[in-house]
């Protein structure tokens, strides 16, 4: 009986050992060492370049404002201590033969083209290519009802909208001009209510104004000052009397004013007597101690900051 217990105990003990051993073996059989990726040979290892530092982006720099049109399209003013003379030729373009003769004169003249001339854009561009400065000769209402300033002229008494539509038509006829001056306009340039919106638009376009002074009652200088429009004014009319003798006398007067003031502005027209006089007079300027200058020189002479 005792032997049977011992045998039983022995069998049980062996069973326990066997069971425990199976458990341990099972546990050991389930564990595996982590799989490591194969290591490449040293000769195949590629070293990546170092990561470059991200460049610092500078704050945006504000570009300088574009110069106004009167400076952008200006012919350079001669650098000299000698007196300057400015020759403006009005009414350019309609009489094409004489206008081309005027454009063939030594530069820099200032040529003011009527916007309704048939070939105005082509002729103005060619004149600018020859070194001349350009103006828009803006048709305006005269005092005399018998004088016709031409199509799309500006008149007093109408609506501001109609006035500006007419002005914009004229301004769009060609480009490359530094400003405008009045064609006729003895009534219009004396009317502050009419001149104010016109010079306001001129200012917005960055243009200058030449007051032809067709009337002593002109308000253009005062309105231009209020609108900060660069301004020049006429000193001499070369050919109000178109005779050769008068043109010669006016050129002599122009010389005297230039020597007194440092600069003088004359207005003439593409007429035979005027053109013939200029063809002889312009080559003599150096001997006279005078220098031909574009109209913008008259603005620069006053050191206008526009």
Structure commentary:
The protein is of the alpha/beta class and 306 residues long. The chain has a single domain (69-301), classed as TIM Barrel (Alpha-Beta Barrel). The chain is built from eleven helices and nine strands. Strands 1, 2, 3, 4, 5, 6, 7, 8 and 9 form a nine-stranded parallel beta sheet that branches. Mean pLDDT is 87; it is low at 1-31.
Structure at a glance:
With 306 residues, this protein is of the alpha/beta class.
What is the CATH superfamily classification? Glycoside hydrolase/deacetylase
How would you sum up the global shape? globular
CATH first level: which class?
Alpha Beta
Share of residues in strands = 5-15%
Q: Pick out the low-confidence regions.
A: 1-31
Q: What is the averaged pLDDT score? A: 87
DSSP summary, beta strand count: 9
Biggest beta sheet attributes: 9 strands, parallel
Written as H for each helix and E for each strand, in order along the chain, the element string is HHEHEHEHEHEHEEHEHHEH
Based on secondary structure, the structural category is alpha/beta
Count of spatially separate domains: 1
Oligomer: single chain
Straight-line distance between termini: 131 Å
The residue fraction in helices comes out at 25-40%
Count of individual helical segments:
11
- The value of Rg in angstroms is 44 Å
- At CATH level 3, the topology is TIM Barrel
The CATH architecture can be given as: Alpha-Beta Barrel
């Amino acid at each position: 009986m005792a032997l049977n217990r011992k045998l039983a105990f022995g069998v049980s003990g062996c069973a326990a050992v066997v069971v425990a051993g199976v458990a341990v073996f099972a546990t050991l059989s389930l564990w595996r060492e982590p799989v490591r990726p194969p290591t490449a040979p040293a000769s195949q290892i590629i070293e990546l370049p170092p990561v470059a530092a991200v460049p610092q982006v500078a704050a945006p720099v504000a570009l300088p404002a574009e110069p106004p049109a009167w400076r952008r399209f200006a012919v350079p003013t001669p650098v000299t201590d000698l007196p300057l003379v400015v020759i403006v030729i009005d009414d350019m373009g309609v009489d094409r033969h004489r206008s081309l003769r005027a454009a063939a004169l030594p530069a820099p003249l200032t040529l003011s083209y009527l916007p309704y001339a048939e070939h105005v854009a082509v002729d103005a561009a060619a004149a600018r290519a020859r070194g001349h400065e350009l103006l828009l000769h803006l048709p305006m209402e005269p005092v005399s009802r018998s004088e016709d300033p031409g199509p799309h002229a500006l008149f007093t008494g109408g609506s501001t909208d109609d006035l500006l539509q007419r002005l914009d038509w004229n301004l769009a006829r060609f480009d490359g001009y530094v400003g405008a001056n009045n064609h006729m306009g003895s009534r219009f340039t004396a009317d502050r209510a009419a001149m104010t919106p016109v010079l306001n638009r001129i200012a917005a376009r960055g243009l200058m104004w030449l007051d032809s002074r067709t009337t002593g009652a002109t308000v253009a200088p005062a309105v231009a000052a209020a609108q900060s429009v660069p301004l020049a004014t006429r000193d001499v009319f070369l050919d109000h009397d178109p005779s050769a003798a008068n043109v010669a006398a006016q050129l002599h007067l122009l010389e005297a004013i230039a020597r007194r003031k440092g600069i003088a502005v004359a207005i003439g027209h593409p007429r035979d007597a005027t053109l013939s006089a200029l063809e002889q007079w312009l080559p003599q300027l150096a001997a006279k101690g005078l220098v031909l200058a574009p109209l913008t020189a008259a603005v620069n002479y006053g050191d206008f900051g526009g």
